[in-house]
Amino acid sequence: MRSFDMRKAHITILILLSGMFAAGLMVPSSTAEIYKYVDKAGGVHQPNIPDVNYGLEMKESWVRFQPGADFMVPSSTAEIYKYVDKDGVVHLTNVPDGKYNLVLKESWLRFQPEAEFERYDTAIWKAAEKYRVDYALVKAVIKAESNFNPQAVSRAGAKGLMQLMPGTANALGVDNSFHPEDNIQGGVRHLRYLLDRFKGDMHLALAAYNSGEKVVFRYKGIPPYKETRTYIRRVLRYFHNYSSELSNPDFL
Asked: Which one of 111, 140, 155 terminates a domain?
């Protein structure tokens, strides 16, 4: 019985995150009561079926948000690791052993309603036409960079929809990186510059957008950074998805 209870504890966070993607204004949490226990090794445990070691951490079963507004959900730790056992049971922990893979390295998760993804389409079209950059590529970069959050700020200090660094924004004449249209204009102009700089090579242009053009030149190609290589794959996946939407006769 204890083994079964612990399995329920391991999937608590997974259920919570899965529920966030449900439609509607109310998002269910995994249970009505969440308990927390920190063991002697510093591991954080948050099951829905506690024993005497656990203290009540939360007693809410719903999170409410307004349409058109994003919201943030705290994760239990800065790093979350995942492991699926032979029975298909998903285990999540912040104190992993060799079986676990890192799946989250942020203290907060941000969610946005799908409607937000089309709010800036007009501004994207205008900038894409002005600087002769594929609309689907611009939208893919915005999706990967900020998930369409105009107030996004990275740990490195990049801001806005296309995550412009202060120096880049200044060079592009963008006074307020949190202004959606100005940010898009600056970001697309920068993307056009990188595409020209690397002779239309989209992979190299995206690598430079993520890690800087000097880094790409230093390595004479895509740098061996896992973050940059993952970023390129992510943008290209979004790019193909948005391109497919445009080719769909029902898109308009």
From this structure: 111
Which domain, by its residues, includes 136? 117-247
For residue 181, indicate whether it is catalytic: no
- DSSP, residue by residue, 219-245: HTSS-S-HHHHHHHHHHHHHHHHHHHH
Question: From the candidates 145, 181, 213, 227, which is the catalytic residue?
Answer: 145
Helix axis angle, 135-146 to 121-131, nearest 10° = 120
Does one domain contain both 129 and 95?
no
- pLDDT tens-digit series, residues 15-70: 444 444 443 334 443 334 555 556 666 665 554 444 545 454 444 334 344 444 44
Distance CA 168, CA 150 (A): 17
| Alpha-carbon span 186 to 18, nearest angstrom | 35
Residues in the chain: 252
Q: What Å distances lie between residue 42 and 38, 39, 45, 56, CA to CA?
A: 6, 5, 10, 18
Q: Is residue 252 part of a domain?
A: no
Cα 121 from chain centre: 20
Torsion 107-203-210-69 (CA) sign = negative
pTM of structure = 0.58
